[in-house]
Amino acid sequence: MQASYQKHFPVMLPEVLQNLAPRDGEVYVDATFGNGGYTEAVLRAANCKVIAIDRDPTVLPRAKELQDIYGTRFEFKQGCFGQISDLIQSSVDGFMFDIGVSSMQLDQPERGFSFSKTAPLDMRMSCSGRTAADIVNQTDERDLADLIYKYGEERKSRQIASKIAAYRRNKPIETTTELAEIIYSVLHKTPNSIDPATRTFQALRIAVNHELDELENGLKSAVSLLKPQGRIVVVSFHSLEDRIVKNFFREQSGNNANVSRYLPQNTVTDSIALTDVSKAITPSEQELSVNPRSRSAKLRRAVKTNNEPERNA
Predict the structure, then answer these.
(1) CATH number for the domain harbouring residue 277
(2) Rounded to two decimals, what is the model's pTM?
């Protein structure tokens, strides 16, 4: 299965470059390669090296294309960014994360990420393992409702899970539009509003790909691999992701409200791994006008301190 690249817009690319600040001779990691938009822009911005990671096998032709152009300045590793510490052993100067489903995955109907066209209810970024259909058809109704509420923040999760359970007693739920229609029986479409199926589909996608666990593990590994003054830039697209990034940066920079005032000051200082943490940066009006998918994006940036805490074993 080969992806189509023509319609992909790297979200907040100028802001990513500004905050990553690529420099000659440095090494960067694109933890979510996708269509390679960030990777190629960084390689063009400086005489540096980029190591790209992606679990999706359909990106391999694009990775080969960049290898042919940039040679040893580009290296690709197939895997999940939650396994960064297994994929990369040496220290690097910067990390880029573009969290969630990519535009090209949404634009491949057969992948089952979108409810706009009929397709198998799949949603696997790695094209292997348990599918969304497996979860929808095999998960206990109560647990399914909890999953939809936790990962989709869907207030009608109980009613949706009940409708799913009733439907699957007669036949398995197999396609995206089949599931969407079940959701529409609980939540009716209204003009100029978010599609009612969005939150449930988001919840299933996150569960299928273990996205929040991957994000937490990826952030921890990235910070441990960053050189002093290395930069980490994260673009997220919904509140669950952004909350994890925000809280992680806060904890790693010593701004966690739970830090005890009775701890010795040097203990708190020694635990600080990040500094220069930015507030959330949102897309420009110009980008919103040409790339509506960027509307929910938020970018956060942090810089590694000169402290050298021990890496996790």
Answers:
(1) 3.40.50.150
(2) 0.85
